[in-house]
Amino acid sequence: MKQTNKRQVIAVIGGGMIGLSAAVGLRQQGHHVYLIERGAAPQFGDEPELRVSALAHHSRALLNQLGVWQQLPQERLGPYTGMQVWDTDSFGAIEFHAAEVAVDDLGAIVENKVLEHVLWQHALAVGVQLLAGEEVIQHQRQQEQMVLTLASQRQMTVDYVIAADGAASPTREREKLPLTFWSYEQSGIVAVLRTELPHQGVARQVFLPTGPVAWLPLGDPHLVGLVWSADQPAAEQLLALPDTAFMHQLQASSDQCLGRLELVSARAAFPLKMQYAQRWVSDRLLVIGDAAHAIHPLAGQGANLGFGDVIDLLQVFEQGVSPRSLRAWERQRKAAAVTMIAAMEGFKRGFSGSHPALKLIRGLGLKAGHHIRPLKRFLIQTALGH
Ligand SMILES: Cc1cc2nc3c(=O)[nH]c(=O)nc-3n(C[C@H](O)[C@H](O)[C@H](O)COP(=O)(O)OP(=O)(O)OC[C@H]3O[C@@H](n4cnc5c(N)ncnc54)[C@H](O)[C@@H]3O)c2cc1C
Question: Which residue's alpha carbon is at the smallest distance from atom 20 of ligand 1?
Fold first, then answer.
């Protein structure tokens, strides 16, 4: 297999935001692209969606370049200009604003389903062959190509398979790509809240001894997306509580930063784990997005890493894909993922537990973050996805 920039036939498995953006980008380069999604085509309604993501500048730039960002409904986008992070039982706090690094905002909060819907419609418009309600059950090599068998027994022969089928990736499992993983033994509880005070475009996060709680500002100035990461026993207790008792606990944790909070959605929980595939490229099969890596949501970087995979992969296909360029892509993206995993681990360990010495250290850490300019700049750059 040598380098070629001929028109490739590519199957993307998984229609989450990462698979869809890869499919759109590859199609716009002139390749013939299939996208196979086992669920239905993504839809959204008038009510704000439960799952939201803070997207960094590089992710937005990609979506802009694909012609997708411009089509997102403005009222469902929450650009955020400030960040406040504090620790509930020490004296530490960091606050920073976009103006400090001369940018208009630090990123934007999007509702996952809204973005996926717009990506899906755009994929359709640019000529991606979308197969919803279909599942790949088998893949085989046939000389220089791959043959996929779908649950409907349809077969397709393609040059490359890109698996973006999420953290449980059935494709990665079938290919037996080894996985390094550990459970954080936490769940992330998500919900949408109405706030008494306007959020003012500030993303807020408090570290409790059981894990961080984040309030992410949505398009409506009084709506925030909640991400409450809690150790497993605490998460189970929180989920078992009736809405009023749950909100009582949340209110108590919020330090009244947004005034009175009202639950305006159901609650859902996601188990949190760290994992990465030890190999991302197996001949003509690649894994990207959560299929390749999953991290703790505390810095909102999971999808941003996936968009980074797509940006670099599009360059590989643009310049002519080869085993060598794919290996270089794999090295580069693994390094980015491992760096982020290590940073999340540091944050998580640094902020969990309530031993007094730990409290003092993390209090000093946050104070240092507030006063030492280079450290604070580093935190801002991470938020910007640089
Ligand atoms: C609580 C929480 C908060 C988060 N907050 C943020 C944040 O603020 N910022 C951020 O950047 N990231 C965040 N993340 C991470 C982010 O949600 C994920 O990284 C991102 O959604 C991964 O997208 P994906 O397209 O790779 O996978 P997924 O969204 O999991 O999509 C995979 C798709 O593949 C399909 N599929 C699976 N198997 C098959 C098959 N066999 N055949 C066909 N289709 C298949 C599935 O139906 C699904 O549609 C958060 C995560 C959690 C849990």
Answer: 303
The pLDDT of residue 285: 98
Q: 357-367, pLDDT tens digit by residue?
A: 556 556 666 66
Residue 6 has phi, psi (to 5 degrees) of -70, 170
As for ligand 1, residues whose beta carbon falls within 6 Å of it are 13-19, 36-39, 53-54, 112, 135-136, 164-166, 170, 188, 190, 227, 270, 289-290, 297, 300-304, 306
Per DSSP, 265 falls in state S
Distance (angstroms) between ligand 1 centre and the Cα of 166 equals 5
Please report the atom of ligand 1 found closest to the CA of residue 39: 47
Tokens of 198: 């306007």
Round to whole Å and give the CA distance between 360 and 136: 52
Please tell me the distance between residue 295's alpha carbon and the centre of ligand 1 in angstroms: 11
The C-alpha R_g of the chain, in whole angstroms, comes to 21
Question: 300 C-alpha to center of ligand 1: Å?
Answer: 13
**Distance in Å, CA 18 to ligand 1 centroid:** 8
| 237 & 364 share domain | yes
Centre of ligand 1 to C-alpha 289, Å, is: 8
Kindly state whether residues 334 and 298 are assigned to the same domain. yes
In which domain, by residue range, is 244 found? 77-111+186-272+351-384
CA nearest ligand 1 atom 51, residue: 297
When divided into structural domains, the chain yields a total of 2
CA of 357 to the centre of ligand 1 (A): 37
CATH number of the structural domain spanning residue 38: 3.50.50.60
Is the domain of 159 the same as that of 298?
yes
| Arithmetic mean of pLDDT over the chain | 90
Handedness of CA 375, 379, 290, 13 (dihedral sign): negative
Separation of alpha carbons 87 and 80, rounded Å: 21
Closest C-alpha to ligand 1, atom 50: 297
Question: β-pairing, 202-208 with 223-231?
Answer: unpaired
DSSP assignment of 312-347: HHHHHHHH-B-HHHHHHHHHHHHHHHHHHHHHHHHH
**How much of the chain exceeds pLDDT 70, in percent?**
88
Is the pLDDT at 3 greater than 70? The verdict is no
User: pLDDT tens-digit profile of 198-211?
Assistant: 999 999 999 888 88
